[in-house]
Amino acid sequence: MRFRKTVSVVAVVATLLVLPYLFMSFTNPVDQLLCRAFPSVKFPNNSDASKSVPEQRISSAETTINNLTAVLNSTLSKSHPDKALSNVLNKSTVPESASSSFDGLEAMLSSVATADKTVIVTTLNQAWAAKDAMIDTFLESFHKGENTQFLLNHLVIVALDHRSLERCRELHHHCFMLRTEGVDFTSRKRYMTEDFLKMMWRRMSLLRTILEMGYNFVFTDADILWFRNPFDHFANNTDFQISSDKYRGNPYSFYNRPNCGYQYTRSNNRTIAMYRHWCQGGEENPSIDEQSVLKVMLKRNEIATYNVKIRFLETERFSGFCEISKNMSKVVTMHANCCVGMDNKIEDLRQALMDWEGRRPLASINTPGTKIWNVPAACRYSMRSPPRRKRNSPPWRETKGQGSNNQLAGKR
Question: Which of 12, 56, 196, 248 is the most exposed, fewest CB within 10 Å of its CB?
Fold first, then answer.
């Protein structure tokens, strides 16, 4: 009799201790992981950098909660199968008809992935696949960088049309064709046009699928030069690392200005849920690009909902034309961001590659204030509006980056 009473008391005490964790596991992940997109999108005000930096709320009891969540899943799957967390995470948001476009992707990823299932991914359409154009400069940088050539063994080039696939196969061993019914991705896409936005969200769907397949990825735009091995500079304890157009000195500040053209994402339940929420935002806001949706998510601190630890990459190493590195001995990548026009991008990227080759041996003696780059040059004024034409004056001549036939993936 005394033994039964003791067991009962222990059971009651254990229940009281566990209930708060069960409540936390049930209310936050189950509801939030449904990936409900925000009802409306408002652009963040980039001028509010003076406000206090929001801290990322990563639960210190995450391990305990995850263990209790597993117990809760077991219970829920029996009584309410549709509410189990594992079912929420495994529930695909890709239409069945669209999933066929990823046939063969997992086999490709498996053949190129590193030992820890990490791949490097870029996308390519016909405009960027032209001979002696963007893709050639991109691949050349791997051959001229420090300890970067072997990374080509882990690079998958995702072709968005048949012509870019043919060109890819001329240059590289790992090419994958991503088919999209009813959309033509062959020509150049002007920034923020309907076709440009479809291309960006199609890319997001691809990256989400890679995470769902269990692979980590480094996504890189093809207008980025690779000078050094970035894996030597990524943080090990971070889920999502992204480059910055404007870096404010704190890698964890949400007031850094992100650029989705370069990101390192680890596959886990947190990042998969975040990406599904992100893609859902695109479905409900098709006239807005993925970078703007991410800025809204950061402003609303929605990243913390999924316990995703995010880090912004410093521009001293992960550089670009928006904010160029002043230290050649540290620079890892160079992005042709803050630039409009493919010709402008190619011209300045080639010059940056020449600067890298010519001054790299002197990198150790670089002093503050020394000019080490001759870029941006063509890109510097590419984002300015064309001059107004005076009345009765002849039409102004189109210059690089201003003509409609020369517009590309804009300032990205």
Answer: 12
Look at residue 123 and tell me if it is in a domain. yes
CA 265 to CA 278: how far, in whole Å?
14
Closest CA to 240 of 215, 223, 204, 216: 216
- CA–chain centroid gap for 337, Å, is 14
Token duo for residue 104:
């063969």
**Domain CATH code at residue 186:** 3.90.550.10
> What is the number of alpha carbons within 13 Å of residue 21 lying toward its C-beta?
19
**Number of domains, the chain:** 1
Paired with 175 in beta bridges are 157
Task: List the beta strands (DSSP E) in 142-221.
Answer: 155-159, 175-177, 216-220
Q: Considering the domain boundaries, does residue 60 fall inside one?
A: no
Query: Residues 58-80: pLDDT tens digits?
Result: 334 344 434 434 443 444 344 44
Residue 263 lies inside a defined structural domain of this protein: yes
Tokens at residue 206, please? 């691809």
Task: Give dist(CA 175, CA 80) in Å, integer.
Answer: 43
Instruction: Using alpha carbons, select from 375, 401, 411, 399 the residue that is nearest to residue 137.
Output: 375
The parent domain of residue 257 ranges over: 97-319
pTM of the complete model: 0.72
The 10s digit of each residue's pLDDT in 133-150 is: 999 999 999 999 999 999
Query: Which residues are within 8 A (CB) of 310 and not within 5 positions of it... i.e. 6 or more apart?
Result: 56, 238, 239, 240, 241, 242, 252, 303
Q: Does residue 274 fall inside a structural domain?
A: yes
